[in-house]
Amino acid sequence: MTPYNPLRQLPERAGYGKGDVLVLVGELFGRGYANGIVEEARNRGMTIIGSSVGRRDSDGSLRPLNPEELAAAESLLGAKIVNVALEAGFDLEQAADGLTPADRLKGVKPDDWDSFRLDGALLAESRQKGVERFTANMGRFARELDAMIPPGANVLFVHAMAGGVPRARVYMPLLNRVFKGQGDRFISSEAFWQSDLGVLCRDNFAEVTAETFRHLVKETEGVRQRVSGAGGRVAYAAYGYHGCEVLVDGDYIWQSYTPYLTGWAKILLEQHAAAACAEGITAAVFNSPEIQTNSSALFLGVELSLYPLLAALDREGGGPVAESIKEECRQLLRDDVSLETLLAEANAYLSSPLHAPFREYATWPHHNTREQMELMLNSSARLMEMSRNPKEIVCAALSRAVFTGVGWLMLDTMWSSSEPVYWVSHDVIAKRLLTR
Ligand SMILES: NC(=O)c1ccc[n+]([C@@H]2O[C@H](COP(=O)([O-])OP(=O)(O)OC[C@H]3O[C@@H](n4cnc5c(N)ncnc54)[C@H](O)[C@@H]3O)[C@@H](O)[C@H]2O)c1
Q: Residue 82 sits in which domain range?
């Protein structure tokens, strides 16, 4: 079990500056966690270098970005991208019989999810080929990158990769029921996780979310040696999730979204960071709060623990930054709803006695129950209805505040990090934001 290690104090300002390089491993979508650290690095004059997962052609083959796609991605990132396809996972990787795991699921009906069988040996073959493809591409990426890093630079790798839902049609309706189903539509996440379809998901999540970090550290060994040989620092940071502390009934309490099926892969990610640290490499996972991004859109209810950030901003001292975030949120609420009503509703959800078994850190990640899903989904809907426009809810403003704070804290911590895993919760994020 990873020892719980919350970041409580603001780290000293890092020595990163002009001439130093931040390498983003994963694509930027505009409202994800990586936006925070990229923006902060840019403010400090660092050079940003990006990456891409590549694209799939209609015949299923993986390729780097074409010139138009590359120009669009570089313009969004505002920086150069090393154009090697770093897609991870094996859902679209052919075994010797010419079929991919996704092919094997063609025509499977969502109702057959618990009886459909997949051949483990064939999946293992695809998995092995996926690993070979990814490590070869990561090696190519590292060699191209090496040529772009000036002598004497400090280099910070930022790993943002997560995901891996197999791209077979059967998964979307199924996962919608696991993550958003109640009443007759409820599916137990535990039963799903134990099915063959669940096992494929588990293994693909592990490849995308955790193994990519291990391969990154291994394949960039040459960069590490050259940079440190020239007197520069090399560090690896990754985003994790393992619950976080938010204000509940006036106290900071560790809580988590359920059912977070990526959790097992996130624990593996923490173990990879610990293994790298044990070899003397500066590597750390930052377990960060729930926010709304492209990747978390499937997890309805994940945003419920974001609301009390508003209370944390006051608890940590308030002031002009807190007022401006609160005002931005106020503008998005219906005229008959105040921030106090919003916070009271979120607190009623978070403090429900029904959550007691889900507060156990040692047994995380937890599976869903019918009652828990009902409470979460209904509370989520009630809070969303408090916004003037359901497409523009206060969570976007709060998510931005969180990823800004987390990016800033990560950048400073990585300058002289000594621990493999940190938790970054609402307390320290609010403290950080209020100093701006
Ligand atoms: N959103 C949250 O609530 C939350 C909370 C804590 C941690 N995180 C973590 O933050 C990181 C960034 O996620 P985000 O929520 O900002 O969303 P995002 O959608 O902006 O980022 C997801 C990243 O994963 C990459 N990716 C997706 N599929 C991939 C594949 N098959 N191979 C390689 N890369 C792939 C994408 O290129 C992108 O960089 C992730 O590690 C995520 O788990 C998110």
A: 21-299+400-434
Question: What's this model's pTM, rounded to 2 decimal places?
Answer: 0.98
How far CA 436 is from CA of 273, 353, 379, in Å, comes to 30, 37, 33
Q: Name the residue with tokens 């105040």.
A: 338
pLDDT tens per residue across span 336-388: 999 999 999 999 999 999 999 999 999 999 999 999 999 999 999 999 999 99
**Residue 364 lies inside a defined structural domain of this protein:** no
Ligand 1 binding pocket includes 296 (Cβ within 6 Å): yes
What's 215's domain CATH number? Answer: 3.40.50.720
How many domains does the chain contain in total?
1
Cα 380 to Cα 387: distance, rounded to the nearest angstrom: 12
- Does any ligand 1 atom lie closer than 6 A to the CB of residue 135? no
Find out whether the beta carbon of 32 lies less than 6 Å from any atom of ligand 1: yes
Give the Å distance between the CA of 209 and the centre of ligand 1: 8
12-31 pLDDT, tens per residue?
A: 999 999 999 999 999 999 88
Residue 284 DSSP SS3: strand
DSSP 3-state of 376:
helix
pLDDT category of residue 238 using cuts at 50, 70 and 90: very high
- The answer to whether residue 144 sits within a structural domain is yes
Name the residue at shortest CA distance from atom 24 of ligand 1.
161
Q: How far is the CA of 334 from the centre of ligand 1 (A)?
A: 31
